[in-house]
């Protein structure tokens, strides 16, 4: 069964800390994505990547950066965590092969609280 | 990507078909319709997608109107485990394009 694994289910960090959220997929997918989900705002795209060492800004990249050194791993970095970054963070990967789209596979999410 | 409109919430009796509508009146010719669902405290799950033909898989059926301005997701025999938020998204292709999720329809399956 295909899998997207997020390293932590729950995380509590202090304001100003540098925070790393890790995401690993075992499906050899080219594309990986980071979203955050907040009540009333839905899912919003932070960053995405089409290939190793490649990254593109999504709708709300401010305060975040990403790293994709290996195909299977996509890390989200909060350079200096703030309370307004308290949220559920969701990682996803996807594959389009020979014109067939298999949709996104999401991880279970990391609920981050910044205090 | 075209904007989609869905009802905020719906109820369905267990064992009956759940029909979830979606309006995408501004969809362009090369945009697909995708459906995802999100069960509480989990990541969204892909259900089905289509361009203009009706589609069916082991989870659901997707009926797209001939003018492509609306579609309906059908869960043929809803169970309590189908209680979730269902998102209808139109996009040029989810494999290579980022998805924009709206607020979705909260489906409650009632015993």
How would you summarize what this structure contains?
Chain A is mainly beta. Chain A is built from no helices and twelve strands.
Determine the N-to-C terminus distance of chain A: 36 Å
Order of helices and strands of chain B: EEEEEEEEE
Helix content of chain B: under 10%
Helical amount of chain A: under 10%
The overall pLDDT of chain A, averaged over residues, is 92
Task: Give a count of the beta strands of chain A, DSSP E runs of length 2 or more.
Answer: 12
Oligomer: heterodimer
Content-based structural category of chain A? mainly beta
Largest interface: A-B, 25 and 21 residues
User: What radius of gyration of chain A results from the CA coordinates?
Assistant: 14 Å
Query: How large a portion of the residues of chain A is in β-strands, by DSSP E?
Result: over 45%
Model description:
The complex is a heterodimer of chains A (115) and B (111). Chain A is built from no helices and twelve strands. Chain A has 115 residues and is an all-beta fold. In chain A, the strands form three sheets. In chain A, strands 2, 5, 6, 7, 10, 11 and 12 form a seven-stranded mixed beta sheet that branches. A three-stranded antiparallel beta sheet of chain A has the order 3-9-8, with no helix packed on it. In chain A, a hairpin with a 3-residue loop joins strand 5 and strand 6. Chain A is globular. Chain A starts with a strand and ends with a strand. In chain A, 34% of the residues are buried. Chain B contains no helices and nine strands. The termini of chain B are far apart. Chain B is globular, with a radius of gyration of 13 Å. With 111 residues, chain B is mainly beta. The mean pLDDT of chain B is 91. A five-stranded mixed beta sheet of chain B has the order 1-9-8-3-4, with no helix packed on it. In chain B, strands 2-7-6-5 form a four-stranded antiparallel beta sheet, with no helix packed on it. Chain B is 0% helix and 45% strand. The chains are: A mainly beta (115), B mainly beta (111). At the A-B interface, strand 5, strand 6, strand 10 and strand 11 of A face strand 3 and strand 4 of B.
């Amino acid at each position: 069964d295909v899998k997207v694994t997020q390293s932590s289910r729950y995380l509590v960090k202090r304001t100003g800390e540098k925070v790393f959220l890790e995401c690993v997929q075992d499906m050899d997918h080219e594309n990986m994505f980071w979203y955050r989900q907040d009540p009333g705002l839905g899912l919003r795209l932070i960053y995405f990547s089409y290939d190793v060492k490649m990254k593109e800004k999504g709708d709300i990249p401010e305060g975040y950066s990403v790293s994709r050194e290996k195909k299977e791993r996509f890390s989200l970095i909060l350079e200096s965590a703030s309370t307004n970054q308290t949220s559920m963070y969701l990682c996803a990967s996807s594959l389009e092969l020979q014109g067939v789209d298999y949709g996104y596979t999401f991880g279970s999410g990391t609920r981050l609280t910044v205090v | 990507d075209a904007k989609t409109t869905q009802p905020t919430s719906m109820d369905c009796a267990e064992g009956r078909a759940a029909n979830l509508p979606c309006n995408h009146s501004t969809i362009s010719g090369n945009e697909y319709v995708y459906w995802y669902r999100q069960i509480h405290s989990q990541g969204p799950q892909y259900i089905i997608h289509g361009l203009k033909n009706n589609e069916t898989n082991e989870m659901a059926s997707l009926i797209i109107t001939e003018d492509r301005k609306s579609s309906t997701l059908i869960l043929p025999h809803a169970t309590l485990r189908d209680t979730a938020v269902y998102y209808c998204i139109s996009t040029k292709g989810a494999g290579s394009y980022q998805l924009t999720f709206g607020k979705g329809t909260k489906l409650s399956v009632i015993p």
